[in-house]
Write a structure and sequence with these properties.
The chain is of the alpha/beta class and about 300 residues long. The chain contains ten helices and eleven strands. Strands 6-7-8-9-10-11 form a six-stranded parallel sheet. It has a three-stranded parallel sheet with strand order 3-4-5. Strand 7, helix 5 and strand 8 form a beta-alpha-beta unit. The longest helix has 17 residues.
Amino acid sequence: MKLLHTTLGPKRADELGMILPHEHVFVDLRTPDQPGYAQADPAEVVRVMAPEIEAIKARGITALVECSTGGVGLRVDIDLAVSRATGFPIVVPTGNYREPWIPNWVRDATEAELEVRMYRDLSEGVGDTGVKAAWIKVSAGDDGITPLEAKILRAAARAAQRTGAVIGSHTIRGRVVMDQLDIIEAEGYRADRFISIHTQEEHDFGLNIAVAQRGAWIEYDHVGRAPDAAVSELILRALDADLGSQLLLSHDRGWYDPAIPGGGTPTPYTHLSDVMLPLLQAKGVDADTIRLLTVTNPFAAFAR
């Protein structure tokens, strides 16, 4: 039986409903060498972010995937504090972002050392939190994957193969995603355990299809950040192309930013449930497809 590992322990599919597969609770987009990087009082983050979690709980959303990885402020202890304060499961990653957000220790580590670190996070828990990472989050440059990013990805593929974890990557260009899939398959892992994050940023829809034809998940995570008409039409286009069973939908919103006094003003995680899903239903998307996109697919992608 596959389980979704969360801050509140492993969850079965029948314990969960709608899942948001790409959001952020805490992010620091400064590079790791900056003073104060990723530093915040967990209680202050709870104060700011708990109301956003309570709002989606009230709408029947049952889990959220934290997409802040190494290099951009991964703080599983903070995710855990928010989760415990709200009684809401949060799914956390291991892994590392792209250049220039790669910490020196990752730059200096061997592939074997990175694999061991990610495997431990997935199998035992991240740091001393006791929370198992459910997945691996990486990234690649817009113009192509660099040697350092490729090193991280190869290590990720090996750790993922040992655990069945999915790898998700912030990658803007579809041709770069195809290169990443080549690397993953060369390491003996499967393209269907890869999520092309921010797929909507590749405006050549043919490349959206090509990535999905390789077996990968595609993710349109700009709900509420782009005009609703354009987002809904893109989703409908993917459904018409028979990509529904590989499609994930989310906002890429939140979040507490320690670089801003008081963490800034978070943006809500509610646009999908309040606006986009009713709009899709009005355009003829049936209830079974809505459930596929919001319940079945996110669990299938992240569970292992």
